[in-house]
């Protein structure tokens, strides 16, 4: 379960820029989300045939996690969600990510997102 490291809001909004299908073998218990399914973007109680394994068949290569409570955003780069507190973020890296992906990122994040945005 991912929560915003700054305000502890849950769930985070996921925007996938690129992903790939992967083949994984399931041994033992099938993992299940506790409250919210990021793949279906629904509460678990709203999903038929739960638990499913759809999210485990897809690897997110690049994307964005957004906290709609505090407007902070966290990049996903090379399959890794970089969920660092503000003081550990590098402004030049954040700005490069925003510029590179500006056509895929909502304007609210591009120009009002925290800790860095293109309005600065």
Blueprint of the fold:
Elements: E1 13-21, E2 36-37, E3 42-43, E4 58-66, E5 73-77, E6 80-81, H1 91-100, H2 107-112
Antiparallel strand pairs: 1-4, 2-3, 4-5, 5-6
Describe this structure in words.
With 120 residues, the protein is an alpha+beta fold. It has helices at 91-100, 107-112, and strands at residues 13-21, 36-37, 42-43, 58-66, 73-77, 80-81. It has one domain (13-112). The protein is built from two helices and six strands. Strand 2 and strand 3 form a beta hairpin. The longest helix is centred in the last third of the chain and has 10 residues, at 91-100. The protein starts with 12 loop residues before the first strand and ends in an 8-residue tail after the last helix. The model has no long low-confidence stretch (mean pLDDT 89).
Mean pLDDT: 89
The largest beta-sheet arranges its strands as: 1-4-5-6
> Residue ranges: pLDDT <50 for 5 or more in a row?
none
Distance between the termini: 31 Å
β content, as a range?
15-25%
Number of domains: 1
State the helicity in percent bands.
10-25%
Give me the secondary-structure category: alpha+beta
Number of helices: 2
**Main β-sheet: number of strands, strand sense, barrel status?**
4 strands, antiparallel
Radius of gyration over alpha carbons? 15 Å
Envelope shape: globular
The number of distinct β-strands equals 6
Order of helices and strands: EEEEEEHH
């Amino acid at each position: 379960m991912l929560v915003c490291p700054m305000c502890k809001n849950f769930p985070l909004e996921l925007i996938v820029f690129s992903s790939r299908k992967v083949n994984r073998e399931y041994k033992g218990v099938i993992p299940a989300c506790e409250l919210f399914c990021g793949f279906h973007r629904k509460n678990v109680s709203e999903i038929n045939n739960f638990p499913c394994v759809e999210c485990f068949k897809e690897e997110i290569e690049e994307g964005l996690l957004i906290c709609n409570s505090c407007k902070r955003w966290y990049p996903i780069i090379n399959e890794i969600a970089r969920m660092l507190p503000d003081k550990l973020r590098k402004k030049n890296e954040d700005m490069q990510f925003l510029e590179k992906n500006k056509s895929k990122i909502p304007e609210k994040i591009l120009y009002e997102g925290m800790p860095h945005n293109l309005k600065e």
